[in-house]
Amino acid sequence: MNKQERFFALKISSIMATRMFGLFMIFPVFSVYASEYESTTPYLIGLAIGIYGLTQALLQIPFGYLSDQYGRKPMLIIGLIIFFIGSVVAANATDIIGVVVGRALQGGGAISAVLMAFLADFVSPEQRAKANAFVGMQIGIAFMLSLLIGPLITVNLGISGLFWVIAGLSIAALGIVFTLPHVKPHAQYTLSVSNIKQVLTSKLLKLDFSIFTLHLILTCAFIVMPKLLVENNIVATDLKD
């Protein structure tokens, strides 16, 4: 990659990593701290953690399509604003339902596909594999750091404070978006039944299902394991106290 492509890939990966860092930080702490909310049940704890993935999955294709029609940058701005609103809703929630709504809105800012399309627009085909690998590396680092920093923030600021930090991270990501160049919309695709059918019958669905399974196992583990560790005194109980 040339210098311009490397700098652009750094910006895209920073936006992606900042957003994912915010999403991942609640994983190790939410099932333990969710008892602070009214009307909490195990089902609603799982729903609060997982619903962002559902809304994100439902809106990835619409966001990608709209970015083809109206440009990548406007859709990134809209997506991060939705993510910010969801974080604020969750931060102000007094019951678990409010957190579920906030998390659903967080997932509604489904900008991952837009970011990857933006990267493909700007980076030459020969260098896209390197650029994608760089983005993946940043996401991996964000995940690792989120598991370390999320509990520290929650111990000092509470679960509400953690959501406020996540809201702040979305503003930081939005600031990076404003530095991105404007790219002419790519309106070469049309929304049709045949195109949707092509997506749903793609050979990539096997790979998609394997990724789905990995995320399912990971999310289930973070719903159950933190609470079991605390209840069985395997970790310091002052993490909750």
Looking at this protein, list some descriptive labels:
241 residues, 9 helices, mainly alpha, 76% helix, Growth Hormone, Chain: A
Describe the protein in words.
- This protein is mainly α.
- The protein has one domain: MFS general substrate transporter like domains (Growth Hormone, Chain: A), CATH 1.20.1250.
- 76% of the residues lie in helices and 0% in strands.
- The protein is built from nine helices and no strands.
- It has helices at 3-24, 30-33, 42-70, 72-91, 96-108, 112-122, 128-177, 193-200, 205-231.
- The radius of gyration is 19 Å and the shape is globular.
- It starts with a helix and ends in a 10-residue tail after the last helix.
- The mean pLDDT is 86.
In short:
With 241 residues, the chain is mainly alpha-helical. The chain has helices at 3-24, 30-33, 42-70, 72-91, 96-108, 112-122, 128-177, 193-200, 205-231.
